[in-house]
Specification:
By secondary structure, the chain is α/β, with parallel strands linked by helices. Helices cover 39% and strands 15% of the residues. It folds into two domains: 18-248, Type I PLP-dependent aspartate aminotransferase-like (Major domain) (Aspartate Aminotransferase, domain 2), CATH 3.40.640.10; 251-370, Alpha-Beta Complex (Aspartate Aminotransferase, domain 1).
Length: 371
């Protein structure tokens, strides 16, 4: 193999195309903020919070520094901390578990279902314990976990949505982020609604909870130099709010383009028996943040795709309990067999709103030669 990239290369994600689409509307507003010297808080942040709350079908949106902070702040606002146990899926980005530890609580892991690779009623029922005070329902790959089913078997534990990958996705007509009492989301640039840097938000209908989140994220202060609770610094930048407002106006159209691309992948791969295509749960509308297939001999397939200039990726190659960071939880290989097996099979194909049919045909043609 050589290091030469083919002329027919297909990127995994094309953020430049998104930026080009919004630059005309974003540029003047950013320059205005620079002229005003208004970088933290202000009208643009307030406008975005209001607009995203309406879009998500909730009463309150609190912009924060990133998605991990959003989850931690939601946990803290609910009073979850030392001595409490939070159930987290073993198949998730590590930030889901990090937020629990940062809030002072203990991570308890659960396996996922074998179709959507999400928490299910069965996996939660099998894992919830007497100290489990909350369940972190992670909406992975762009579709919501079955929150209403999880709530019925959670033993009274509160359900918190990790909605970092699900902006614009829905379950039975309700937007992700509005399915439980509180949700945290991320605006990392690669998300469907991504900033030009880090950002996140907490979503809720509970005004008191929103106030606690806002206070904690502002050094525990509702008024300057009055610090009523212990807090830290996690605020959404004004420039990021400008970018997010411009992208929010296009989010539905971009998600529809992703859905069309996912449908094309489904059609192109329909007769490829070696490829296990993504499964969408009944009642769900995915935003197709990630189009993750499952294949045998994944590492060889991934290497072949990359060699041919196909920007494939892995989400997530190591379940949380097998990472060095969480070895202290005491779990062992074999404890979460579905998550562990999927981690050896998953490969994510290029997926973004500006992906063309010709690019997808190229991806699948290469994939067919490899499986």
């Amino acid at each position: 193999m050589t290091d030469t990239v083919p002329l027919t290369a297909v990127p995994f994600l094309d953020l430049a195309a998104q930026q080009a689409e919004i630059m005309g509307s974003v540029g003047p507003d950013v320059l205005r903020l620079l002229d005003l010297g208004q970088f933290v808080g202000g009208d643009q942040v307030t406008l975005f919070e209001d607009e995203y709350a309406r879009y998500s079908g909730v009463q309150h949106c609190v912009g924060v520094g990133n998605g991990t902070d959003a989850l931690e702040l939601a946990l803290r606002a609910l009073g979850i901390g030392a001595g409490d146990e939070v159930l987290v899926p073993a198949n998730s980005f590590i930030a889901s578990a990090e937020a629990v530890v940062r809030a002072g609580a203990t991570v308890r892991l659960a396996d996922v279902d074998d179709d959507a690779l999400l928490l299910s009623a069965d996996t939660v029922r099998a894992a919830v314990g007497p100290q489990t005070i909350a369940v972190l329902a992670v909406h992975l790959y762009g579709q919501p976990a079955p929150v209403e089913q999880i709530e019925r078997v959670s033993g009274g534990a509160v359900v918190i949505e990790d909605a970092a990958q699900s902006q614009g996705a829905s379950r039975f007509g309700r937007q992700a982020g509005s399915l439980a009492g509180v949700a945290g989301t991320s605006f990392y640039p690669g998300k469907n609604l991504g900033a030009a840097g880090d950002g996140g938000a907490v979503l809720t209908d509970d005004a008191d909870l929103a106030d606690r989140v806002r206070m904690t994220a502002n050094h525990g202060s509702a008024h300057k130099y009055v610090h009523d609770v212990f807090g830290f610094n996690s605020r959404l930048d004004a420039i990021q709010a400008v970018v997010l407002r411009a992208k929010l106006a296009r989010l539905d159209a971009w998600n529809d383009a992703r859905r069309a691309a996912a449908s094309r992948y489904d059609d192109l791969l329909a007769d490829v028996a070696e490829v296990r295509r993504p499964v969408i749960l009944a009642g769900n509308s995915s935003n197709w943040h990630i189009y993750a297939i499952r294949v045998p001999d994944r590492d060889r397939v991934l290497a072949g795709l990359l060699h041919e200039g196909i920007g494939a990726a892995l989400h997530y190659p190591t379940p949380i309990h097998l990472t060095g960071a969480f070895q202290s939880l005491g779990y062992a290989r074999g404890d979460f067999p579905v998550a562990e097996k999927a981690a050896t099979e998953l490969v994510s194909l290029p997926m973004f709103p500006h992906l063309t049919g010709e690019q997808q045909e190229r991806v699948v043609a290469v994939l067919k030669r490899l499986v």
